[in-house]
Structures are given as C-alpha cells and as structure tokens.
Amino acid sequence: MLDALLSLILVIIGYKIYKWVKGRPRIPNTSDKFVLITGCDSGFGREDAIRLDGLGFRVFAACLTEKGEEEIRKSCSERVVTLRMNVADHESIKQGFQTVKGHVGEKGLWGLVNNAGISGRVGNMAWLNLQDYHQVFAVNFFGLVDVTHTFLPLLKKAGGRIVNMSSCTARMEPGTGPYAASKFAVEGFSDGFRRCLKPAGVSVHIIEPGYFKTAITKAENVAQKMRSVWDSLDPERKEEMDEETFQAKTEDVLKHLDLICSPRLDLVVDAIEHALTAVCPRSRYVCGWDAKLFFIPLSWLPTDIGDAIFAWVTPNPAKK
To answer: Could you tell me the CA-to-CA distances from 17 to 11, 14, 47 in Å, in that order?
Structure first.
C-alpha cells in the first residue's frame, strides 16, 4: 500500500515537472498579434492590458465607462485601442466587433480575454431573489458567451486563444450565490467549448483566481451590497437574523476578506500572460495560495467532510 502511494506521488511530481518544462517556451513574436480584453476599467483587466501592451501585443481594451478608457490611455502606449463595451448588451458587443474587425483585417484575433464580471448583491443566499441571479448571469455568463460567439470568426482566422475568467468559487461554493453559480456555468461552457474548438485550432483556457484585492472584494462595496440585501427584506424575514447579528456578520465577512484577499494581482496577470504567450499553455490556471491550498483541495474531499471543514473555518456570529 505504501509503495503504491509513493509511486502515485512520484507520478504526480513527474507530471508537474513535465508540464512546467513543456510550458517554458514562448511564442516568437507578439507585435503582430491582436488581443481583446473585456472589463478593463479596473482590476485584472486593467493590469492585463498594461502587461500585454508592454509585451508588444496590439491590445483592444474594452471598458464599460469613459473613465476606464481614460485610465487605460494614461497607462498604456498609443498601440492600445480602447472601446466602450457593455458585455450584457448584444448591440454594444456588435459595435465592438466592427471596431476590432476593422483593425485586425485578415490577421484575425490572437487572444480574447473574457475578464468582465460583477459580484452582484451579497448576503445570505436564502435572502437573494431571481433578479439577483439574472443580473449577475447577464454579465458573468451570458455576456461571456455572447462575446465569445461574436468574436469566434476572428479567433478562427488566427488560430487564437480564449481565456475565460472563472473563480475558485466554481470549485467550492462559499455562499456567494449568483456569483459562484455564474462561474460554475463559465467552467462548464469553457470545458465544452475547449473540446469543440480543438479541431478548429482555437484553444480555451480557464483562470481560477482565489480572493484578491479588487473592486469586487473592496470592503465598502461588500458592506453596501450586504446592506442592500438586508434593507430589501420584509419584517418577517428580518426576524431570522436581528440587526445586531447582521452587523456582526458583516464585520466578520469584512475581516475575513481583509485576511485572505491578496494584493498580488500580478499572479493572475502572469497566468493570463502564460495562456497567451506559451507555446504549450495550460487548460486551467489556479491563482493564489487560498485557492491552491484551501478551496481546490477542499473540493476534492467527500462532500460531507468538505462541508464540515468549511463550516468550522467560516465565522458564524449566530453561534456566538
């Protein structure tokens, strides 16, 4: 038994070394390759646009706001083309497609980074409603699918790569509700599309970040969204958790986020860069120690054991 376990460990280590060595070579040229990134107003999208611009890619930075476009122009070279795109609006996506198509011509699109996403309202999942799910899925999933299908002809021309932003919560749902559900959907779509597009020479790659310091995890934003859910409850529902307990829960959530959220956005940007520049990129990238050492391993355990461990480490003011 011990020999079999040791053999299995050696096989896993050998495979990891093989994948690392195989992933070292990079594509020879980036200056003739076009990449579209959605959600460049802040966070991973903005940092990724700056990184890829620095590597010589011809970047299309899609932003939701004019302010986002202005920030990209200040931070990047003149090669970067900014465009306004709301991924939840098909007409907006079509306009973006025409802009990109006019620039790339017959070269096509080397990379599509589906980064745009929102968290939606945050709180007890039993307190959320159908509209909360519609709102998040419209951006995180249906928007991603719409952008991917719209730009697929340009990706096929270049034999390009699709990089989809998922989350470690798509492996182990921590109670985020619509957000994690939308990321589960992204994983399913990405896995199916990867197999579907392989004969066409287009590859699909999934990024699974842990918790990072972005606009989604910013304390005031999270507190505001939790308060929004609480305020929308009728008096009978509020009896399930009194005001004092709700405040304690909010404080615990914010403390927990402050503890686990990493400022190292570069870890995610590194993964996106590798997916676009490696000769042999990976199909899936896990980013952040919380994802690698907690969320992903927890998802491998039997369900009851994983649930028990998660309940043990999750603050619950109702039990205080």
So the answer is: 10, 5, 29
Rounded CA separation 300/212 (Å): 22
Of the candidates 282, 297, 315, 237, which has an alpha carbon nearest to the alpha carbon of residue 24? 282
Residue 185 burial (CB count, 10 A):
18
> What is the per-residue pLDDT for 156?
97
* CA distances to 26, 104, 107, 262 from 31, in Å: 14, 12, 12, 32
Catalytic residue, candidates 15, 133, 179, 211 = 179
Task: Find, among 225, 280, 281, the residue nearest to 257 by Cα.
Answer: 225
Tokens at residue 102, please? 């006019």
- Any catalytic annotation for residue 179? yes
pLDDT tens digit string along 256-289?
A: 888 899 999 999 999 999 999 999 999 999 999 9
Instruction: Mention every residue, 6+ apart, whose C-beta is less than 8 A from residue 91.
Output: none
Instruction: Write the CB contacts of 232 (distance below 8 Å, at least 6 apart in sequence).
Output: 127
Q: Tell me the three state secondary structure of residue 248.
A: helix
Angle, CA of 130, 211 and 63, to the nearest 5°: 70
Cβ count near 115 (within 10 Å): 25
Question: Which residues make Cβ contacts (< 8 Å) with residue 240, sequence separation at least 6?
Answer: 124
Question: Quick one: which H or E segment has residue 178?
Answer: helix 178-197
Q: Which two tokens stand for residue 136?
A: 């998040």
Residue with tokens 């999933």: 141
Distance (Å) of CA 258 to CA 125, 166, 292, 295, 316: 22, 21, 18, 17, 17
pLDDT, tens digit, 9 for 90 and up, residues 290-314: 999 999 999 999 999 989 998 887 7
- What does the H/E/C string look like for 133-176? HHHHHHHHCHHHHHHHHHHHHHHHHHCCEEEEECCHHHCCCCCC
pTM score, two decimals? 0.91
